[in-house]
Structure formats: C-alpha cells, structure tokens
Design goal:
With 386 residues, the protein is of the alpha+beta class. It has three domains: 163 residues, Reverse transcriptase/Diguanylate cyclase domain (Alpha-Beta Plaits), CATH 3.30.70; 65 residues, 3-Layer(aba) Sandwich (MutS, DNA mismatch repair protein, domain I), CATH 3.40.1170.60; 105 residues, 2-Layer Sandwich (Dna Ligase, domain 1). The protein contains 13 helices and twelve strands. The strands form three sheets. Strands 5-6-1-7-8 form a five-stranded mixed beta sheet. The longest helix is centred in the last third of the chain and has 21 residues. It starts with 25 loop residues before the first strand and ends in a 27-residue tail after the last strand.
C-alpha cells in the first residue's frame, strides 16, 4: 500500500510520564496481492502469469499487480504503458470491485470471530486488537495463524500478518515474510528490531525524505534514535515527534473500530504542461481511475467531489460540487468530475497538476456494528500472551 508523504505521519498520543505503555496485542493483516489474487483464483488460466488489474489503454493505470508481475517492477498506480514496457507478457484484466468488496466482507467476518476491535484500512488490510482473548486461543501468534488459515480455507486466498504490541510495529512486521507468512515483534526485541530498519521503512518516509535523511547521516532506525527531538523538529517539522517515538518502538494509538477518513483523493503532475481541452479530459480520466480505485478499496461513499488544478506558474484553484446523495458508482463519479472540469475550459494557461478528492464520507453499513466497539480493561484471565 502506498504511504502518504512525511507531512502526514500519524499523530501518536503522548505517554504520561512514568506510566509504562499498555501491552496490547495487535495484529495487522494484509492480503497478498488482493485484487490480482482474486482474479487468479477465479480464472485458473491466469495462475502463474504476470497479471495487472486495470486498464491497458494509453491512459490506463494499474490498480493491482500479481507477484509474478512485481518481479518485473510492475506496481499499483503505475501507468499501464509503463507496466507493459517493463513486462511485455503482462495480462491486463478489468477490475471487479463488487467482487473484491464481497470477498473483503467475507474476510471481515473471519476477523470478527476473534475480536470486536477491527480497524479496516482498505479492502485488503486491517488492524485487529486481540488483547481480549475472545476464543480462548491463548496466544496472539496462534490467533494470527488461525485467521490466516481460515482465510485460506474459506476464500482460497493468502494473507500475511504482523503481530506486536502496537500498530507501527505490527504493520512493519506484516511485510517481513510476504507473501503468505507472519512475523512477530516481541516487546523485548522491539528496540533491536527498530534499530535495523532502513529509514525508508518508517511510515511516510518517501524517496525525497529518505534522500534528505541520508544527507544528514540518517540511514536506519538506530540513526533516527540517536537524534534529539529538537534536531528532528528542525529538519522534519510536524513529523519529528512521530519519528522520535517510532524509532524507540513507541506508538500508543488504539485500534479504532470507528475510524473514518475525512477524504480520499489523488493527484498527478505532468512533465509537460497540458494546454488542450482534449489533453485535460484524458488526464482527468487517468486521475479518475486512480481515485476511484482507492474509493473502492475503502468501500467508501461521499457527497462532495473537489477538483484541484495547478497552473504552469504554480497558481492553484479548486472547484467543488456537493450532491444531495452519495456518489453511487464510478460512472457517476466520472460524470461529476468531468462536469467540474468543463466549467474551467478552456484554460488560460498550461496546467501542470490535476487532482481529485471525495469528501463528506460516510461509514459503510458493514462497519456500523463495529463502530460501537470500545477498548475496555481486559481481565487477566482473558489476556492473550504473544
């Protein structure tokens, strides 16, 4: 999953002085190449082949890639022409978001057997707080094994899991033994584990931030931990506290079953300014593909669509349109987006960036029951060990 820029690092609540962090048991489940794996499951002819979910047209975008395609450097959000150039034998299949949603709900039901505290991040990943031993399994590691086994048996798909005492470490751990594996970071091993992490693995550290860190001599978690909070604030602003605490294995964010995003969007900057109406219409189609894929992954719905346009001289405008009801499907989403763009054409000067975002989001019906789940004190007899 693509991470946001460093400016959007998660806010980690401050710990009370002298109070040790609660030893939660958190699992991060991440489905393996979810969209592509569903397509390979449902079409045996695709198994073992490099598969990309998305459009193969000139302005198409890869929504997901199978592991066979990833070997060639094909990644999600990559232009289809680039993906095809990297992997000439790549097989494109159109996305079936309703199928992916249905499978995601099936997986969510498996999670619910083991915990009421489920925080979905998208259709294919979620945090689970299993501190309360709902099934009497006795071990968070075994809970993760059971969940992965039931996902495989009931859906024919594989999942990877990370297990630790906080979200940051659980998410990092789920990527350690992909695909179809799991990894645990125990409390006594956390500092040593974080010390060896490349700086690029920290949430929100993109290529440019990693380059800036390298110029400052920061290459690993140990290098980050060696810096003072003041030094990090000087060079990384609002992300400083997150980096300071994450490098020490600290993250007190709870798993929130009622987690809601304020908006979902995406944007793209072009190497050459767009001048003609036809160019802008085609460019907007590419943005629509990217953003709608993200909306579908989140099972989200919203009422307000905002178009962002940045001109060659870096001046920027936004135009929004709010509807009486949530936008129901991709066709409607595209129609509203193109309607907003039409009101801006012809443009007075070249356009270097276009973006779209959906706001006024509503909680999916499937999450309504989970929204009432709260973290309660866990009696000793119900607490899981790792």
């Amino acid at each position: 999953m693509r991470l946001p820029s460093i400016g959007h690092a998660p806010t980690i609540p401050a710990m009370q002085s002298g109070t040790p962090p609660a030893r939660r048991k958190i699992i991060h489940i991440d489905m393996d190449a979810f969209f592509a794996s569903v397509e390979q499951r449902d079409n045996p002819a695709l198994r073992g082949k490099p598969v990309a979910v998305g459009g193969s047209a000139l302005r198409g975008v890869v929504a997901a890639a199978s592991y066979e395609a990833r070997v060639f450097g094909v990644r999600s959000a990559m232009p289809s022409v680039t993906a095809k150039r990297r992997c000439p034998q790549l097989v494109f299949v159109p996305p079936r978001f309703e199928v992916y949603k249905s499978v995601s709900q099936q997986i969510r039901q498996i999670f619910a057997r083991y915990t009421d505290l489920i925080e979905p991040l998208s259709l294919d990943e979620a945090y689970l707080d299993v501190t309360r031993d709902k099934q009497g399994v006795g071990s968070a590691i075994r809970v993760a094994q059971r969940i992965r086994g039931e996902i495989s048996a009931e859906t024919g798909l594989t999942a990877s899991a990370g297990i630790s005492y906080n979200k940051f470490l659980a998410k990092i751990a789920s990527d350690q033994n992909k695909p179809n594996g799991q990894f645990v970071v125990l409390p006594q091993d956390a500092l040593a584990f974080v010390a060896t992490l490349p700086a690029r693995r920290f949430y929100g550290v993109g290529p440019r931030t990693a380059e800036r860190m390298a110029r400052l001599g920061i290459h690993t978690g140990a290098d980050l931990r060696a810096q003072s909070l003041g030094f990090l604030q000087q060079h990384f602003g609002k992300a400083a506290e997150y980096l300071y605490r994450a490098s020490r294995g600290e993250d007190e964010r709870p798993v929130r079953a009622d987690r809601q995003r304020k908006s979902i969007g995406g944007e793209r900057t072009w190497a050459q300014d767009l001048q003609q109406d036809a160019e802008l219409v085609a460019a907007l189609d590419a943005i629509i593909d990217i953003v709608w894929e993200r909306i579908a992954r989140q099972s989200a719905s919203g009422r307000t669509l905002t178009l962002k346009m940045k001109f060659a001289d870096f001046q920027q405008i936004t135009r929004a349109r709010s509807l009486d009801a949530p936008i129901p499907d991709r066709a409607s989403f595209a129609a509203v987006a193109h309607g907003i763009l039409a009101g801006l054409l012809p443009v007075p000067r070249g356009v270097r960036l276009l973006g779209l975002s959906l706001s006024g989001l509503e909680t999916p019906v499937a999450d309504a029951a989970a929204a009432h789940a709260v973290a309660e004190p866990v009696p000793a007899q119900y607490r899981l060990e790792f």
